[in-house]
Amino acid sequence: MNLHSRSIIAVTANVVALILPKTDAALEIIGSGYGRTGTDTTREALTILGYKTYHMREIIDNQLLSHVEVWKEAAETNCANIDSIKSIFEEGGFTAAVDYPEAMCWEQLSKAYPDAKVLHTQRESTEKWWDSASNTILIVHTKFPVSVFNAIFPFWNAHHAMSNAMWSNMLKRDVKDSDDGWPDVYKEELLARYESNNARVREAVDESRLLVQDHKDGWTKLCTFLGKDVPNVPYPHSNTRAQFRAFFRNLELFVGCAVLVAFVVVVYLTKRVLTAIYKGEGVNKKKAKGE
Predict the structure, then answer these.
(1) CA separation for the pair 240, 134 (Å, rounded)
(2) pLDDT tens per residue across span 255-280
(3) What is the DSSP string of 47-106?
């Protein structure tokens, strides 16, 4: 390749780089609150404010197996490979991240993105967090139909393994949601870790960089903290415990109906096949007798 050709390629590449939008993005907001502290409401609020926000919902809705593998490794190594975690956000163009599994690594991410603000969510009381978490995210893989999905679909099998790794990371010892009495037998440890995380955020993050978000405050404090205008829409309130349960009840009904329909179809087809075989044998017998 001669110098002229190289020059043309270099100029073309520069022009393309100027025209095409960058896909990489640095996190501007790091969520430090555990799941079931209003993180989905935060996700929706940040989305309204113009942020592309990463949340567990992103992983599940898009069946992102590669993300699950990264987060499982992060849980097992206490977020040691921060570059692989950053690549999830930067390659996906995410400018904010909240909820587990991201919140598991909030402290490491706050060091990796020193200009990012930290947004912390927590419940009114520790017991309220427990009441919500112990009836939703801590048991979701143990209930039908997700428990069936775990055994059938590679994504859900990997997601289950990731979830157990996250709980082990939280408690600093190996645990599984198949352990006898889960999660109740670990209640005191889980509550202690939840409270410890709330305290650690306040201890480790400079006040100028931190907002402990109370959804009851609506838009005002959040928008002031982020330097955004207050949008002309109501402050969101999403993924309540009732909504979470309703979603899985509907999923359970859908899967149950699908299984029933599949069973009926199998019975019908089996009957048709057996009838055809029986008729075929009858015809063959008649031919054998010369009828």
Answers:
(1) 14
(2) 566 555 665 666 667 777 777 777 66
(3) HHTT--EE-HHHHHHTT-HHHHHHHHHHHHHTS--HHHHHHHHHHHT-SEE-STTGGGGH
